[in-house]
Amino acid sequence: MAKIVVNGASQIEDVPGLSAIAQAHEIAFAGDETALAAALPSAEVLLGWNFRGRDLPNCWAHADALQWIHWCGAGVDAVLFPELIASDVALTNARGCFDRAMAEYVLGLMLAHAKGFDQMFDSQAKRTWYYRMTERIADTKAVIFGVGSIGREVALVLRGVGIEVSGIGRSARSGVPVFGDVHGEAEAGHLIAAADWVIGVLPSTPETQNHFDAAFFGKMKPSARFYNIGRGTAVDETALVAALEAGTIAGAGLDVFATEPLPDDDPIWSAPNLIVSPHVSGDFIGHREAMVEQFLDNLKRYLNGEPLSNLVDKAAGYVRD
User: Fold this and answer.
1) Are 56 and 147 in a shared domain?
2) What average pLDDT does the structure give for the chain?
3) Whose CA is closest to 182, among 169, 192, 194, 191?
4) How many domains does the chain have?
């Protein structure tokens, strides 16, 4: 029997499927920092139900028996504070739960731009018969920055509709599923210049801050579009807005932002040809149940002394392949 603390939930009904282990384990719920500090003593396992939650650093002194944290998000930047990184506490994430939904979302954004759905919806609202020709996406070229499980799923979906896909990783290497050969950053320039679509799936690490900046957008074709579903901190948002306003690139779609929710006075809202969505690309109907199922599978591994799935390299900030 293990004591499990659920951070970011106040009752078992908030976490669908967790009741399956309620009789076998002591489960404490911590909806805020005060509750978390009270619940942590003697707890072996912490389930981070709110992937944006930042209560744990201030409560770390109370974690006297903690062995494992499972974070219910693909990104773990909210929980990577120095004391945890330096500790022996294992950290796992929800890698794999959101891949297909996010890949479909990217394809949806691309189709929205290529087929002019925004203009069609606007014309319908005005009862205007606005004829226009649309673009085909088959035989176009896409470059994906980030070749982890999400990036690979995006590549798989895009290749399925006839798009030529290249992947950019931390370093050049071969034998990566779906991509085959992955290019390093040193090789990215000519791929960006030839791409019709550029997709960011980078984690939030010191190395990825403002990776997509003015110089980057300046390398893209004026007809190309940029999408980010990784982390908002990877994009210089001011530079992106400027590129859209100047026509340096043709369009963009952002599902993640440096500040969330996006402030109502942010220039991003009014940037031309930019689709804004509220960090929902991975949140499909049933994803909460899928996250719990994944946690329960890892809990069995933990209790049996087996290697945990999705073990995060805390120094790097992501799960290494």
Assistant:
1) no
2) 97
3) 169
4) 2
d(CA 236, CA 207): 13
Note whether 138 and 271 are same-domain residues. Answer: yes
Q: 238 and 155, same structural domain? A: yes
Say which residues have a Cβ less than 8 Å from residue 67's Cβ, sequence separation at least 6: 44, 45, 89, 90, 302
Helices (H) and strands (E) in the chain, counts: 10, 15
Mean per-residue pLDDT for 159-176?
96
Taking the C-alpha atoms of residue 321 and residue 316, their distance in angstroms, rounded to an integer, is 12
Share above pLDDT 90 across residues of the chain, in percent, rounded to a whole number: 97
pLDDT digits (tens, 9 = 90+) for 187-226: 999 999 999 999 999 999 899 999 999 999 999 999 999 9
Q: To the nearest whole percent, how much of the chain has pLDDT over 70?
A: 100
**Same domain for 240 and 107:** yes
Backbone angles phi, psi at 246, to 5 degrees: -85, -10
232 & 297 share domain: no
- Check whether residue 137 and residue 267 sit in a common domain: yes
- The CATH number linked to 37 is 3.40.50.720
Question: Which residues have C-beta within 8 Å of that of residue 38, sequence separation ≥ 6?
Answer: 30, 62
Ordered strands of the 68-71 beta sheet: 26-30, 3-7, 45-48, 68-71, 90-93
**Segments in 87-198 forming alpha helices (H):** 99-114, 117-125, 149-160, 188-194
Question: Is a pLDDT exceeding 90 seen at residue 321?
Answer: no
Please check whether residues 259 and 302 belong to one and the same domain: no
Q: Containing H/E element for 165?
A: strand 164-168
Enclosing domain of residue 112: 99-276
Q: What pTM was computed for the model? A: 0.94
- Rounded to whole angstroms, the Cα distance separating 300 from 297 reads 5
Q: What tens digit of pLDDT does each residue of 31-50 get?
A: 999 999 999 999 999 999 99
